[in-house]
Amino acid sequence: KPFNRLLLTGAGGGIGTVLRDRIKPWARVVRLADIGDLGEARPGEEIMRCDLADRDAVLAMMEGVDAVLHFGGISVEDQFVPIMNANILGLHHLYEAVHKHGVGRVVYASSSHTVGFYRTTERVDADMPLRPDGFYGLSKCFGEALSRYYYDRCGIETVCLRIGSSFPEPKNARMMTTYLAYDDLVELVRCALFTPRVGHTIAFGTSANATQWWDNGKAAHLGYVPRASSQAFAGNFPPTAERPPAGDPTTIYQGGPFVSAGPMYRD
Ligand code: 15L
């Protein structure tokens, strides 16, 4: 197997649960970490309870690890302090541990909410200015900048995945554009982990949906080719189905409901 020990953080989350089963062929041992209970370790697994805000726990979690799939942290809009602890302080702990233990590569779950304040009429690529749509998006911007710094300073490679919406199926009309099917998610993570010499790369994560807001040209070297499409679910969101009213920020901006979820939003 290509890796001896692969660490997956956030292994109990929605995406973590999918990856838990699918990454087994990539490593002799998959170390699963989460702040919550992960149940019993199955064959080829190690389980660790870890709060990212706990520096010593993060250091211990990283021991003997070859590469990290970092899907831990808060994944929705929240108050600033919990986001700061898990996603900002936690990310600092993670990269200090990565550096200390000589880990070569991180695949980081960033988010499209780093650019959620672009309009749905705009097409965004990885070099365009960040436009976070809340504290959650801001924490992901921090992660992208932090990982860039650790690459420039220490040569630690990171692929930041600006994941759209990875669920069993799109839950609303917006997700017809942002949908990332699980098979495509696994393929994107595989490309991010195994492509030689990625340096610091930012890639968007969607399936081959009919509408596209994001241009993945800057991540072409990953060779990621999506195969699924949200079109399979088009019937769930017919034009007659209820939609937000015109002028609603959730239809104007790519971030959808996130743009008005935070306490800072004003009309
Ligand atoms: C995200 O970044 C969240 O982690 C996820 O829960 C979804 O809400 C997704 O974005 C989205 O925009 O649909």
UniProtKB/TrEMBL annotation:
Keywords, in A-Z order: NAD, Oxidoreductase
GO MF entries: oxidoreductase activity
Xref: Pfam families: Epimerase (PF01370)
InterPro entries documented for this protein: Epimerase_deHydtase (IPR001509), NAD(P)-bd_dom_sf (IPR036291)
SUPFAM superfamilies in the record: NAD(P)-binding Rossmann-fold domains
Statement: the UniProt record of this protein carries the keyword Signal: no
Span of domain NAD-dependent epimerase/dehydratase: 7-167
Similarity remark: Belongs to the NAD(P)-dependent epimerase/dehydratase family.
Protein name in UniProt: NAD-dependent epimerase/dehydratase family protein
Organism in which the protein naturally occurs: Pseudoduganella flava
